[in-house]
Amino acid sequence: MVDPGAAAPARKAPLEHYQPPKGVADELLRRDGSLRPAWKPMIDHLAGRDPGQVAQDFARGDLYLQDAGVYYRQYTGDESAMRNWPLSHIPVIIAESEWRDLAAGIEQRAELLERTMADLYGPADLVKRGLLPPQLVARNPEWLNPMVGVKPRSGHYLHFLAFEIGRSPDGSWLVLGDRTQAPSGSGFALENRMATLRVFHELYPEANVQRLAGFFRSFRDRLTQLRGTEQGQVAILTPGQHTDTYFEHAYIARYLGFLLLESEDLVTVDGRLMVRTISGLEPVSVLWRRLDSRFADPLELDETSALGTPGMVSTLRSGSVTMLNCLGSGVLEARALMAFLPRISEALLGERLKLPNIATWWCGQAKERAYVRDNLERMMIGPALSTDLPFDYDSTTALGGRFRDNARGPVLDWLEKNGDSLVGQEAVTLSTTPAMIDGQLVPRPMVVRVFAARTRDGWTVMPGGYARIGRNGDPTALAMQSGGSVADVWIVGDRPVAPDTLSGQQPGPFVRRMPGRLPARAADNLFWLGRYVERADFTARTLRAYHLRLEDHSGTPMPVFDQLGRFLEGRGLYLSHPMPELFLTLLENARGCASKVRDRFSDDGWYALDELEAAARALAGAVEPGDATGRALSQLLRKLAGFAGLVNDNMFRFSGWRFMSMGRALERGVQISDLLAVFSAEGAPQGSLDAALEIGDSVMTHRRRYSVETNRTTVVDLLALDPENPRSVIYQAGVLRDQQAKLPRRSKSSQLSVVGRRILRVHTDLSVATPEDLSNAALAKLADDLQAVSDAIHNEYMG
Predict the structure, then answer these.
(1) Can you give the pTM of this predicted structure?
(2) At 511, is the pLDDT very low, low, confident or very high (cuts 50, 70, 90)?
(3) Among 98, 352, 717, 781, which is most exposed with the fewest C-beta within 10 angstroms?
(4) H or E stretch including 117?
């Protein structure tokens, strides 16, 4: 091995134990053991920092990912859980000169796949000319017959693709898999870059790394152009928060400024795709699909799908919407197709593949089957129509003539009986790249995912991507589900790189853009986020009042203490535990609502809410009843106030903020009305009014406002009828009135809507009421009237 820092012996440290396996290509070292020039600045940087500094650098990147809430969903059997993003801190570094050839090969391959799909769903000349066996199309579950003859509105079937590439042992690059269905990872590539910037904050500005923003800007601008003259919405369609890449869907939607939709947000009307918004139905002109094709339309594709929108296919037939990628594009991911792409390239493009794919043989042909049979020891044999990568070795795949599951029969018998459903692929020996393990650089197997997007000027390739890194030397353990990690990919050149941003310089005069229409589902989640947060706040205050009095109870009668207990248990808050599970569930529900609108929620707001729930669960298991629980609840109330302040200060005053504010106001009004109905009732035990003021956070205000002794009149006046008290019911009615008036109107009529009338009636009744008018029955009715406002809001805006 050649020492890259011969003039500085101390710099031997990073490579002291770095030894790639024999016969394997490596990203850091060339075949002769010399350092690839592109890596020298990184190795010099690491050599100049002691282990403690490196650890601090890595921790800085991890903290960014934690603060940003980056996660993936890991599945174990029928269960799933959110896991922290597993960053491998050392990026994969590729020289710009080498990348140019790679990018040219990717662009050619993208165009080849476009033309192949156009043929498969059009004239089918490839099958007619014998360039592709018909059974590989007809038997493929991703082949969607209803899409045959449906020409895309944009004129193109494919707009965004991903490719898995890796080095062969001789150092050349190969395509290991094509991702044409709904490629994921571009958003994670951005987050990897943001985290790596923090790890190498000193090195990166001087490393001549190609920026990613221009790639996304060109793609975003193209999607905006695809709207045409209709100027309908551009949206991203996600399966929902339970998919393993939901974070990326939300991140990309927020980054590019597009709507994030689920199937329930969409409806087809007269051959057009419409999104349900708080203003009514709005047309969707461009839909970036992030769910598999066959789930998109239960009417024509898969009747069992709960993720699709009935009539989606009809909107594509009518040409009213551009979808990327077009339904049915998953047919291009089949392993067997790789066996025929070299010939197809010559037929459709008139040229050989610039970037070859892994050698593949379809075993439905006698000659190819015989070749695979004679070379079993260097073959991986698996399902011909599988979309898994060749190193995804499982019980349905044979490697080197053996099954992982020894219970299966001989491979040769399997091959002869099922040849037309199998492919043989040359066993992959993945190249390695440096990973920092226990303070030392060690080689780990890796594969790089690169992305290509169609722009106005044709295909463009992201200058980078992201790499999947094996947890050990096992090339079958690259997936995050198997414990693998991910790394940024740097494309480095010899000249400085100009800074770049997503915005760029827009031609023409400045125009202030207003936020897009708010989908009804997003409005519903923001409304209930406000309600759950306020309900948790009220519950915490009531629990605190109970536990602080528990210290003074000491077995002696205390009627107000018993009253608080009955009040809590009447709401399902059973006091066998200091912090009842229902209280924790309220915080969990609030977090669940926020998770469904991650594209509309700031990272700081999300992190504050996530931290709040985690703190509540940690405290719940560590406190004793009484004063300790009271102090813990005070701590949580401060965190709740911090979250509310953060959202109030930072969230743009668009419709989403108004719905969240209305949710909080409505919930606070209901809770205070219920509180007064019980604690100001005739015959309520002594101390009840003081408890009501305490729970209503109005003790100090009451002392300043009223020079008389606490009585029902003063408490009801302050908590129900004082328009200056932000905790009073009338104040909440005012918030509801003001915010609802600023929401988009569905009707052009000048009359008030049902919601407006209900809110105005509540506010007017409170405005003319006196404390004496608000009997217990009137307070209970007030709570019911506010709940009716909630129902009316749902019917008008979310129904």
Answers:
(1) 0.87
(2) very low
(3) 352
(4) helix 96-120
Q: What is the Cβ-side half-sphere exposure of residue 86, based on CA atoms within 13 angstroms?
A: 21
Question: Could you give the C-alpha distances from 149 to 157, 444, 571, 787, in angstroms and in order?
Answer: 12, 46, 59, 52
CA distance 658 to 51: 50
Q: Which tokens hold the place of 286?
A: 């461009």
| Least confident range of 226-235, 325-334, 713-722, 765-774 | 226-235
For residue range 116-140, list pLDDT tens digits in order.
Answer: 999 999 999 999 999 999 999 999 9
Query: What letter would DSSP give residue 488?
Result: E
Residue 404: is its pLDDT beyond 70? no
Give the closest residue to 465 by CA, choosing from 187, 110, 58, 174: 187
Q: What is the pLDDT of residues 525-540, one digit of tens each?
A: 999 999 999 999 999 9
CB 655 within 8 A of CB 523: yes
- The CA distance from 630 to 736, in Å, is 32
The secondary structure of 60-92 as a DSSP string is HHHHHHHHHT-EEEEEETTEEEEEE--B-SSPE
Q: How far apart, in Å, are the Cα atoms of 303 and each of 139, 294, 307, 308?
A: 19, 9, 10, 9
Residue in the structure block whose two tokens are 């100090």: 700
Hey, what are 138's tokens?
Answer: 């007809």
Residue 718 DSSP one-character state: I
Nearest residue to 187 via CA among 148, 154, 165, 220: 220
* Tokens standing for residue 2: 């050649």
What does the alpha-carbon distance between residue 326 and residue 159 come to, in Å, rounded to a whole number? Answer: 9
As a whole number, the mean pLDDT across the chain is: 88
Percent of residues, the chain, with pLDDT higher than 90: 63
Contact criterion met (CB below 8 Å) for 146 and 300: yes
Residue 362, pLDDT > 50, answer yes
Burial class (CB in 10 A: 0-12, 13-18, 19+), 231: exposed
CA separation for the pair 327, 313 (Å, rounded): 8
- Contact between 735 and 727 under an 8 Å Cβ cutoff? The reply is no
Is residue 437 helix, strand or coil? strand
User: Token pair for residue 672?
Assistant: 């205070």
**pLDDT per residue as tens digits for the range 149-160:** 999 999 999 999
d(Cα 451, Cα 464) in Å, to the nearest integer? 8
Q: DSSP letter for 509, please.
A: S
pLDDT digits (tens, 9 = 90+) for 618-668: 888 788 888 899 999 999 999 999 888 888 887 888 889 999 999 999 999
